[in-house]
Amino acid sequence: MHQPLVFRLLLIFIVLILNACGTSTEFDNQATEGYSNAEKQKFAKYMIQGKSLYTTYCSNCHQTDGEGLGKLYPPLAQSDYMLADKERTICLIKKGLTGEIEVNGISYEQAMPGLKNLSNLEIAEITTYVYNSWGHETGFVRVEEVEKALRNCE
Ligand code: HEC
């Protein structure tokens, strides 16, 4: 039996309203599934801010797509080095990194300058962005995590 047209329109209308009120964003991923709506909103803000900061401070070397540049700049996308240790990443953003490292089986040995003027919030936003882009789904990196990591780095 056909539903009356008006009933169907009503259903469509309700679905549209629910979507508009929902707080799911384009940034949601596996790691954010259990977040409250407020957390999801905050996560989305971090991702937007993080992307803009990444463009300013990182993409010259690591490139917009996170693929790095030849033998000079290592990739962040799918980087085993980066994904293995979030605290180390937070430290190297602030303090820089020198010496030989290996990323996905390839060795790199240029110096990365530290970005000493970034605030802890900015570092949290950038770190959230790089850990939730290019297929990474690690969830929030909170300011408290950044504070803790920076207390512990050399
Ligand atoms: C001037 C170029 C330059 C800039 C700008 C730069 N990096 Fe790097 N980055 C490097 C180089 C070179 C290395 C490798 C250092 C080494 O060999 O010891 C590196 C290493 C890394 C690593 C560890 C290796 C890997 O690929 O996983 C991470 C993570 C990283 N950078 C993130 C960032 C982030 C985030 C920013 C922006 C806040 C940034 N970098 C800005 C040049 C840069």
UniProtKB/TrEMBL annotation:
Give the signal peptide range.
1-20
User: InterPro entries of this UniProt entry?
Assistant: Cyt_c-like_dom (IPR009056), Cyt_c-like_dom_sf (IPR036909), Cytochrome_c-type_DH (IPR051459)
- Report the GO molecular function annotations: electron transfer activity; heme binding; metal ion binding
Q: Would the keyword Acyltransferase be found if you checked this record's keyword annotation?
A: no
Q: Which Pfam families does the UniProt record give?
A: Cytochrom_C
**What range(s) does the Cytochrome c domain occupy?**
45-134
- Which UniProt key words apply to this protein? Heme, Iron, Metal-binding, Signal
PANTHER family, alphabetized = ALCOHOL DEHYDROGENASE CYTOCHROME C SUBUNIT (PTHR35008:SF8), BLL4482 PROTEIN-RELATED (PTHR35008)
Q: What is this protein called?
A: Cytochrome c
**Protein source organism:** Marivirga aurantiaca
